[in-house]
Write a structure and sequence with these properties.
With about 120 residues, the protein is an alpha+beta fold. The protein has one domain. About 45% of the residues lie in helices and about 25% in strands. Strands 1, 2, 3 and 4 form a 4-stranded antiparallel beta sheet that branches. The N and C termini lie far apart (about 115 Å). The relative contact order is 0.10.
Length: about 120
């Protein structure tokens, strides 16, 4: 028997693997890896969208609270303006400390998610 016949007999017996294409196990493993990667990406996108929506909601509520403090009537958003209180805005530059007298105004939504505080200096 020559080498060509031996190679042919091995191929017929299934001892030599044809190197073209993938085996079923390789295809299943590749599909499983691809599915896991897709699930991780979908979860990440879902989280990102949720964070964007919450950020937009907080931005809208913050703008509404600011408008309530400025005197605009925005009952649609459910904000109430609490009583104003007098106080000082204090800051320090180097060793010098400064205090500005004024009024603090607070707006809070009914759900207690957003509160906004503004300071208005007394006119002198």
């Amino acid at each position: 028997m020559n080498d060509a016949e031996k190679s042919s007999n091995r191929k017929k017996a299934g001892l030599v693997r044809d190197k073209r294409g993938f085996t079923l196990m390789e295809a299943v493993a590749g599909g499983a890896v691809a599915a896991i990667v897709c699930l991780i990406m979908a979860s990440g996108f879902g989280t990102a969208i949720s964070m964007i929506r919450k950020g937009n909601d907080l931005k809208i509520k913050g703008e509404a609270a600011s408008s309530v403090i400025e005197g605009a009537a925005l009952e649609d958003y459910g904000f109430i303006q609490s009583t104003s209180r007098e106080g000082f805005l204090s800051y320090r530059i180097g060793t010098a400390q400064y205090e500005i007298p004024g009024i603090y105004k607070t707006a809070v939504d009914n759900a207690q998610e957003v509160s906004f505080i503004a300071f208005t200096a007394d006119s002198e």
